[in-house]
């Protein structure tokens, strides 16, 4: 997969390096621009699209808080904690229920025994603000 595919940002070799590194590890991820309003998503890989059921155009330019993955069992308190951590550039662990595009039940976030199926990690690094 070419690095530029799904990339909506000025070309930056640093971002290209990050994308290649994580693509090679079979990770599902997004990259957002912390310098624009709502920390808009500027890149999402195929794995993230497959995991969420959303196409790349559906995901691009959405807020990195992934509001589009919220559902009936997503708690407002969890949403607020994620937003606060992103705004304050602080590390915080939050368990949140996110939903697949075509699934509206709890099974979208949990496996058969109540174990989490997927983990989402938000990471903000000052070095990424090029």
UniProtKB/TrEMBL annotation:
CC terms in the record's Gene Ontology section: monoatomic ion channel complex; plasma membrane
GO biological process: regulation of membrane potential
Localisation: Membrane
Keyword Ion transport among UniProt keywords: yes
Main location: membrane
UniProt entry keywords in alphabetical sequence: Ion channel, Ion transport, Membrane, Potassium, Potassium channel, Potassium transport, Transmembrane, Transmembrane helix, Transport, Voltage-gated channel
Boundaries of every PAS domain copy: 37-104
Transmembrane segments: none
Membrane-protein topology: Multi-pass membrane protein
Keyword Metal-binding found: no
Pfam families for the chain: PAS_9 (PF13426)
Record's catalysed reaction(s): K(+)(in) = K(+)(out)
Molecular function as annotated in GO: inward rectifier potassium channel activity
InterPro entries per the UniProt record, alphabetical: KCNH_animal-type, PAS, PAS-like_dom_sf
Coiled coil regions, renumbered to chain: none
Protein name: PAS domain-containing protein
């Amino acid at each position: 997969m070419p690095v530029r595919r799904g990339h909506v940002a000025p070309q930056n070799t640093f971002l290209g390096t990050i994308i290649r590194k994580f693509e090679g590890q079979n990770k599902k991820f997004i990259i957002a621009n912390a310098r624009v309003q709502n920390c808009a998503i500027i890149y999402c890989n195929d794995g993230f699209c497959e995991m969420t059921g959303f196409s790349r155009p559906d995901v691009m330019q959405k807020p990195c808080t992934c509001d589009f993955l919220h559902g009936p069992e997503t708690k407002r308190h969890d949403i607020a904690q994620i937003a606060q951590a992103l705004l304050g550039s602080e590390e915080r662990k939050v368990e949140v229920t996110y939903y697949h595009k075509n699934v509206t039940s709890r099974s979208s976030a949990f496996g058969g025994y109540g174990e989490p199926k997927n983990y989402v990690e938000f990471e903000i690094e000052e070095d990424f603000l090029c």
